[in-house]
């Protein structure tokens, strides 16, 4: 019935009372004309309101394509219209808009910036490639005689990398050279000046540092260190030359010698040379005669420039040992035997890694020779008695080396007891003199950087001058 009514209404163009069609929702005053029916929006609207409530498929309209085709409506226009409407309503992709805007609205300035940026990076890359190629070139025997090796020239990747690495490290070494050519002041003259200089490493020789999760960094002092420094300080000018930075090692050195009685000077990593990525302690910069300098260091790279002055030792791992005590007899003999050149004595040892053990063998041989000589002298005591020669002139009762050792032990005990009683007093006096010297000289930051802090000799000299001035002022009154 509804289909017949709709069809007759469409043909006649009259108003269709939708209320008479029970399955269709109420629509009032809907006029069907041939022109209006052809309008796709009207068809869509009508299809929406003409949906049956009772129909299981709620989107199915009673105006099917069959009915509309009989009414003269072109059903193919509706999907095309919907597609056009959806395409108009759908927003464009923002990335597509950005690309189109970037391509279409790029200004001349932006194009120039992009061009110059590309030129800069290409030039930067070309310069780096040229620098690498120049640094990796073959060695020239005339321009680079110190590093020239004919076997290192060639185009193999390993040789190219080796030449590049050597030259790059050489460039960086320029910035790691010591700032001063004389690391120590001139050696003071006088009867109490030590004739020899003993250079000692701090880490893994005198102390050992270790870190754990519970207590953090801990530093252990090697057994016999106090006796080692105190005993040898009467024969040597002791210099601590550490490969650690001054910021970390200075406090440790100060604790080893709180009264400034044994250690003459301390040097640190900042004055080391750097060669091929290794730290080197150049003894020629100490302002001392190398024939009177001995260095003890567990790292062979540190004394690689003067290996003939070195006593090689193993690294101390923090356990109890007597490594320092074993070195004392040889160092004592070296300083008291009026050695002209320590390098000749060190060269005489077959195995420099075991100098204390080999010297002990030599000492026993010297003791045996001395005892044999004393035995021969005793056989002539009868004639010495007849001639009236006193016993004190007939021969020594003790070996000279033993006499020197006993005298050295007495001196050490005297020094130890004196510091124990007067160490704090001497330290306070030194601090007061330092303050007075700084006040008199008006030390500034620039002066400290250029000339350094005043040494113990400067303080003593300034104190003597001030004392002389005070005495002269008192005499004039």
From TrEMBL:
Top-rank taxon, per record: Eukaryota
Keyword list, A-Z: Membrane, Mitochondrion, Mitochondrion inner membrane, Protein transport, Transit peptide, Translocation, Transmembrane, Transmembrane helix, Transport
CDD domains in UniProt: HAD_FCP1-like
Bias (Basic and acidic residues): 85-99
Domain FCP1 homology: 191-334
Gene3D superfamilies, per the entry: HAD superfamily/HAD-like
Pfam families, alphabetized: NIF
InterPro entries: FCP1_dom, HAD-like_sf, HAD_sf, TIM50
Compartment(s) where it occurs, according to its Swiss-Prot or TrEMBL record: Mitochondrion inner membrane
GO terms for cellular component: TIM23 mitochondrial import inner membrane translocase complex
Membrane association type: Single-pass membrane protein
Biological processes per GO annotation: protein transport
Region feature (Disordered): 73-106
Family per record: Belongs to the TIM50 family.
Subunit and interaction comment: Component of the TIM23 complex.
Function comment: Essential component of the TIM23 complex, a complex that mediates the translocation of transit peptide-containing proteins across the mitochondrial inner membrane.
Protein name: Mitochondrial import inner membrane translocase subunit TIM50
Organism, scientific name: Pichia californica
């Amino acid at each position: 019935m509804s289909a017949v009514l709709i069809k007759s209404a469409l043909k006649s163009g009259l108003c269709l009372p939708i209320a008479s069609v029970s399955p269709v929702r109420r629509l009032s005053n809907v006029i069907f004309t041939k022109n209006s029916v052809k309008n796709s929006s009207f068809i869509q609207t009508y299809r929406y309101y003409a949906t049956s409530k009772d129909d299981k498929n709620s989107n199915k309209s009673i105006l099917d394509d069959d009915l509309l085709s009989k009414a003269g409506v072109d059903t193919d226009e509706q999907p095309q219209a919907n597609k056009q409407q959806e395409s108009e309503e759908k927003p464009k992709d923002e990335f597509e808009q950005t690309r189109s805007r970037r391509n279409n609205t790029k200004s001349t300035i932006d194009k120039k910036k992009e061009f110059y940026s590309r030129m800069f990076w290409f030039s930067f890359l070309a310069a780096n490639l040229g620098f690498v190629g120049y640094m990796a070139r073959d060695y020239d025997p005339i321009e680079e005689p110190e590093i020239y090796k004919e076997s290192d020239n060639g185009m193999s990747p390993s040789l190219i990398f080796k030449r590049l690495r050597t030259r790059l490290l050489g460039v960086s070494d320029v910035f790691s050279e010591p700032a001063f050519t004389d690391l120590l002041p001139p050696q003071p003259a006088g009867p109490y000046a030590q004739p020899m200089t003993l250079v000692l490493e701090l880490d893994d020789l005198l102390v050992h540092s270790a870190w754990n999760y519970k207590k953090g960094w801990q530093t252990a002092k090697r057994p016999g260190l106090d006796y080692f420094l105190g005993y040898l300080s009467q024969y040597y000018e002791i210099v601590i030359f550490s490969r650690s930075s001054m910021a970390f090692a200075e406090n440790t050195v100060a604790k080893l010698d709180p009264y400034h009685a044994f250690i003459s000077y301390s040097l640190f990593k900042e004055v080391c040379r750097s060669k091929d990525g290794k730290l080197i302690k150049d003894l020629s910069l100490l302002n001392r005669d190398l024939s009177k300098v001995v260095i003890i260091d567990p790292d062979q790279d540190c004394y690689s420039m003067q290996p003939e002055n070195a006593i090689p030792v193993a690294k101390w791992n923090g356990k109890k040992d007597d490594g320092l005590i074993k070195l004392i007899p040889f160092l004592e003999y070296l300083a008291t035997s009026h050695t002209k050149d320590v390098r000749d004595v060190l060269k005489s040892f077959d195995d420099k890694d075991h100098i204390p053990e080999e010297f002990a063998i030599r000492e026993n041989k010297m003791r045996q020779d001395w005892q044999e000589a004393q035995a021969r002298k005793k056989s002539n005591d009868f004639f010495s008695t007849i001639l009236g020669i006193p016993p004190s002139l007939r021969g020594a009762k003790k070996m000279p080396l033993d006499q020197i050792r006993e005298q050295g032990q007495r001196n050490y005990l005297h020094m130890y007891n004196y510091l124990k009683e007067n160490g704090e007093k001497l330290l306070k006096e030194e601090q007061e003199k330092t303050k007075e010297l700084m006040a008199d000289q008006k030390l500034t930051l620039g002066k400290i950087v250029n000339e350094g802090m005043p040494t113990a000799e400067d303080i003593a000299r300034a104190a003597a001058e001030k004392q002389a001035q005070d005495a002269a002022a008192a005499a004039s009154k």
